[in-house]
Amino acid sequence: MTDESAPKTHASLEIGINRAHPARMYDYYLGGTTNFDPDREAADAALTAFPTLRTTARENRAFLLRAVEHLARSGIRNFVDMDTGIPAPGRNTHHVAQAIRDDARVVYVDNDPIVLTLAQALLTSGPRGSTAYINADLRRPESITQHPELTRTPTTDEPVALLLVAILHFIPDDQNPLDLLRRLTGRLPSGSRPVISHATDDYDPQGWAGLVRAYADAGITVRPRSLHEVADLLGDREIEEPGVVPVSQWRPTGETHTDPALVSCYGAVARKT
Length: 273
Prior knowledge:
Largest sheet: 8 strands, mixed
Radius of gyration: 17 Å
Strand content: 15-25%
CATH topology: Rossmann fold
Helix content: 25-40%
CATH class: Alpha Beta
């Protein structure tokens, strides 16, 4: 790991746990233990407004793993997992990708001090593949795209899967998520695959209005977007089948599918030409 990725001081860690953080709230929804009182309080308020939010988190996580498996089977071996969040035991991006392609290379990106202290769990790799961790902020795309780990770990001439899962709804309109996505993908080779999932209030506007207020009370901006708005984020990129759909309906496994209204999250895999 680079000096930039070195563990933070105790003081900076305290700053991180004294207020709610979306990644740790997500961990709480998934039944994890890497969360603190401010995270749980904010998450419980959000659950009061939208009670099936744990289902949203589970289906979103399942979408991520299915997308990684699909792309690895399609020949992609380079993955960049943006705002990766709290590591999940045994089921992170590199576990899935390297189970299919043992030479898969994965770069994780996040800026939460708690995630940083747990990054070592993300840096276990098979002998032919590799993993790396970048401490950086999505809102500063060039700090990611120009980082040595990004140019060193994935090969520069092969397609890259850029995983933006449950992230862009934390980017308000005035921060121009479309431009952030353009800057993140601009240097990627042809054939690269942006992968997004995004919260929506299409199915339950009232519930999501309450959820947005709960997050705002915790100092976190959430901007759910409609199906049309999510599709617009992908611009003119080719969108793989089955298109922009609820994450529970994106290449599902098994015969039973979760009702999209209980999930309220769209997912898609696009292709850079």
